[in-house]
Amino acid sequence: MNAPHHPGGSGTPGRAEDRPARLAVGVVGAGRVGPALAACLALAGHRPVAVSGVSDASRRRADALLPGVPVVDPAGVLARAELVLLTVPDDVLPGLVRGLADTGAVRPGQLLVHTSGRYGAGVLDPARRAGGLPLALHPAMTFTGTPVDVQRLAGCSFGVTAPEELRLAAEALVIEMGGEPEWIEESARPLYHAALALGANHLVTLVAQAMDLLRAAGVGAPDRMLGPLLGAALDNALRSGDAALTGPVARGDAGTVAAHVAELRAHAPDTLPGYLAMARATADRALVHGTLRAEQAERLLEALSSDGEPA
Fold first, then answer.
1. Which alpha helices (H) appear in the chain, and where do they start and end?
2. Sign of the torsion formed by the C-alpha atoms of 170, 171, 177 and 179
């Protein structure tokens, strides 16, 4: 396999015998992730041969990203493919793997790749006992189910977990999809996934709530107002961590925070618990970082108490 150039890093596949050959690729679960990954593998020279999907939306995604690839049942995918992408919801994955193994669908030497952030390679043990080769390759990316996902995977980090003897092959597949492999130990998968959910999923909620509040304040284009601000805040946070903390909590402006609490309680009570939790977490981090003094933190905690009024 001629993997794309990967500058530096221990994940660079060095020996030709460690690199997967051109493979027939199948997708079980044509959600937002599977077809995009299969399309990336096709660009690297692999050959999508089958996809399974039940809903009309799944079939449309498969047709858009994998045109001409036949839609069959999961057993049919495994019968045709050398590399199988198991891209189903987390709660469905263990039962699916057991079912495929119990029915003899898994062939010795067949690569089985799941994309769950929660699970490592252990969830594929039933398939491994049947001779399958288990890989956990989780892209740290949000997916739309459209061709734009293929472009976004360029440079995307993947959380990789696999048996040691398959590590180089797993990392090589990630590189072929345009991604950057990041090794995650089996025991660390739940913590790794919690971190991504905290940063990405909760960010969407925060941004949506902020836009709702701006609309309520009379702002006609909250997305345009927030875009530059949030872009700068994200860039600063990624570069500088806690040193990037700004705003009334980091400054210790208890009066301003109390006004926020009162206003949210009166006009948007559903957003208040999130504001209080994040303000307290921000105060804790600012205090540890040294940008907030202890006496300021005490006044902030009073402002964030049940009555929302500073002492």
1. 34-43, 56-65, 74-80, 93-102, 125-129, 148-152, 167-176, 189-196, 202-216, 222-240, 248-251, 254-267, 272-289, 294-303
2. positive
Name the one residue in this structure whose structure tokens are 């057993």.
75
Distance CA 128, CA 185 (A): 18
- Please state, in angstroms and rounded to a whole number, the distance separating the CA atoms of residues 27 and 138: 15
Backbone dihedral angles phi then psi of residue 138, each to the nearest 5 degrees:
-105, 115
List the beta bridge partners of residue 226.
none
Amino acid in position 242 = D
Ordered by where they begin, the domains of the chain are: 16-184 (3.40.50.720), 191-303 (1.10.1040)
Look-up: residue for tokens 């440079």? 155
pLDDT tens per residue, the chain (311 residues)? 443 333 333 333 344 344 457 999 999 998 999 999 999 999 999 999 999 988 888 889 999 999 999 999 999 999 999 999 999 999 999 999 999 999 999 999 999 999 999 999 999 999 999 999 999 999 999 999 889 999 999 999 999 999 999 999 999 999 999 999 999 999 999 999 999 999 999 999 999 999 999 999 999 999 999 999 999 999 999 999 999 999 999 999 999 999 999 999 999 999 999 999 999 999 999 999 999 999 999 999 999 985 544 44
Tokens of 90: 């987390």
